[in-house]
Sequence to fold (191 residues):
Amino acid sequence: KTLRKQTPINTAVESGFYTYVDVQGNESNEIEKLFATLEGYVKPIIDLLATRREISAEQRAVLTTFIATLFFRTPGFRRIHDGMHEAMMKRVMQMSLPNVDVAAATLERMKADGRDVDSVTSERAVEAAQNPDDYGIEFPPNASLQSMMTLLPQIAPMLGDLKWTVLHAPQNKSFVTSDEPFVLLPPSGHK
Fold:
């Protein structure tokens, strides 16, 4: 990859990253609207910090929520989320389909429930379940977005309880940006 110097505007932008399918089957950008509103609240707080002024407890709570979104709003979070869910589902499949007899009974139950499983044999199901490195499971964005929105109100207060250090770049210097801007660093000497 090539490093390039540019302003943060539209750096690491991925269109539709927070678009999800609602219960009616329609695409929605409500999460993006929520983030835009939050960013509107945070901008004056960041401006205060840029002038090295203190912020109130209420402002810190808003900023903490924004900082938590920086952890969850990334391709990295989606990769971690989907990877963990894939590993868990593969393990469940290994335990659920240990042999052909169990797989045949499972396929019969699925067929009785109206699922189309005619193209799957019990032998093939067991072979796939017992060889998890031979296949992958993909998840729709809704899965990671739901986890993100569930975790956000739990993680934000924890971040607020941490000791913060606000760093300022020297005059005419910049920080390096990326598509994963959130970093937790333990204090020096921490073991």
